[in-house]
Amino acid sequence: MSWRARLSLSLNELRVVYCAKSASSKGTRDFIKNNYKTFKVLNPGLPIYMRPSDGAQPHVAARYERGVYEVRDVTGLSEAQVLGVVQELEAAAPHINSTVGGGIGGNKFKLADIV
């Protein structure tokens, strides 16, 4: 099974925040334009949120089990690099989901920390 099709088994949510105008979000916008439909077809039950926000620093956030979030900055990355970040987030899921408190390293948050 492709890692793209495993997203709904690995993540509880995928969120992409970007600026609709800035050059630093171009790769993120291209990622959305060229990949969103495929991800939704392969993972119809997975909440995938695309959030344009003027002046926002582009980032990708994955929510894992027990409300653990991991956020990755994708400022200035190409479409392929943003896709690589999403793949890394999916690949990290077994470790993060099996570790109480969300594992070690990275920007991991409990849901209560960001609400």
How many angstroms does the end-to-end distance come to? 34 Å
Structure summary, number of beta strands:
5
> Please, how many domains?
1
What is the CATH level 1 assignment?
A: Alpha Beta
Q: Please indicate the percent range of residues in DSSP E strands (runs of 2 or more).
A: 15-25%
What profile does the largest beta sheet have? 5 strands, mixed
- Looking at how many chains there are and whether they match, the oligomeric state comes to single chain
Helical segment tally?
4
Helix content: 25-40%
What are the segments in which pLDDT stays under 50 over at least 5 consecutive residues?
none
Mean pLDDT: 89
Fourth CATH level, the homologous superfamily: Glutaredoxin
Our Rg estimate from Cα atoms comes to 13 Å
The secondary-structure class comes to alpha+beta
- Coarse shape: globular
CATH fold category name: Glutaredoxin
Subcellular location: Mitochondrion inner membrane
Keywords: Electron transport, Membrane, Mitochondrion, Mitochondrion inner membrane, Respiratory chain, Transport, Ubiquinone
Family: Belongs to the complex I NDUFA2 subunit family.
Protein name: NADH:ubiquinone oxidoreductase B8 subunit
